[in-house]
Amino acid sequence: METKWSKVIIHASAFFAPFLVPIIFFLISSEEEVKTVSVQALLFQIVMGVLIVIAIILSFVLIGLPFLLVFIAMVYIVPIIGIVKAILEEPWRYPIVGRWV
C-alpha cells in the first residue's frame, strides 16, 4: 500500500515540485520500485525541460512551435497517466526515459 501512494505522490509532484519530490523519495525509500519511479520522473522532467528549451529556440524560425505545443502537453498529460496507472497498481514507464532506468 505504501508503494502505491508513494508512486502517486511522485507522479503528482510534476505539478508542484517536479525535481524536489522525486529526489526526496529516492533518498528516503527502501523499495526498489519507488526508487525506479522517482528516477524516471526526475529524468522525464529534465529531458522535457531541455526539449522545451530547444523548441522555444526553434520557434523563432517557426519550426519549433508544433514541438513546443506537444512537449508542453506531454508535461501535463504524462504525469496524469502515471497517477492513474499507480492508483490501478499497473506497471508503467515514462515515455522517452522509461527504458533508461
From TrEMBL:
The UniProt entry lists the main location of this chain as: membrane
> What is the official name of this protein in its record?
DUF4870 domain-containing protein
Q: Which domain of life is it from?
A: Bacteria
Location within or outside the cell: Membrane
Q: Where are the transmembrane segments?
A: 6-29, 41-61, 67-88
- Keyword presence, Transmembrane: yes
Q: How does it sit in the membrane?
A: Multi-pass membrane protein
What are the record keywords, sorted? Membrane, Transmembrane, Transmembrane helix
Signal peptide annotation? none
Pfam families given for it?
MamF_MmsF (PF09685)
